Amino acid sequence: MTTQASHTKEHHGPGQRAWRSFLQSKGAMAALVFLAVMLVGSLLLPLLWPHHYATADLPGKFQSPSVEHPFGTDALGRDLFARMMYGAKISFSVGICATTVSLVIGVAYGLIAGWFGGRVDNFMMRAVDALASIPFMFLVLMLMTLSRDFIMLFVALGAVQWLTMARIVRGQTLSLKQREFVLAARTMGSSTFFILTRHILPNVMGPVIVCATLMVPAVMLEEAFLSFLGLGIEPPKCSWGTLADDARKVINPVQTYWWLVVFPAAALAVTLLGLNLIGDALRDALDPQQKHRGL
Fold it and tell me: Domain 39-286 is of which CATH architecture?
């Protein structure tokens, strides 16, 4: 029995060991469940909820949480729960789409710089250093002043996040291109595109995935900051950041409508925590130096 179990363990590949290690993280599993519920809710609840996120009802403004309005209403009498669910869809869309833009640019840039090396690598990485010296929020604000379009928000946030990804991929590529399987592929006459896509890219996906999971919450936080400055989603659309900004405009020492800031801020904080827990668990699971922990 023991011999059979040992034999089974020996045949677990690196991918299986990483997956099993990830599943053992209770924090990451709880975060996955929470994020799944939020994603499903943001897609389905706006269709089922009786109150529309943009429907104003001035006589019913600033109602505290109740059975009819679980999260209360805002300054225009709009149901905050409906706006929270719609805002979740926008916030997740911004985080995922901007991260995708960043990954495409950063991975391609890092692969090219690391593979060609020499003067090409030196020129490309000096360009990265020059861009990194500019405050990233300044670049975002500059791009957002050109257009307040929803797509521009994806591009603006993604265009300033790819620098770290490019450095990671470039470093991994420099190391991998000296490995035996890459040298063998070059000896056999494989094209550069084939080697990069079939040999290099699959082997850098571990760090890329980890970086992406940590980049999504960073982008969501930056979108919230832009919305807080009034440069985010335009009304009547909303994100969790714009909801927090709406609360800032009406809360004062005399009247404190606590539900307007507590619910959006709590949703954003818990979501960011969950995404960071998943990123940390993936980093530990994909770390080639970790012990197998008995798997």
Answer: Orthogonal Bundle (1.10)
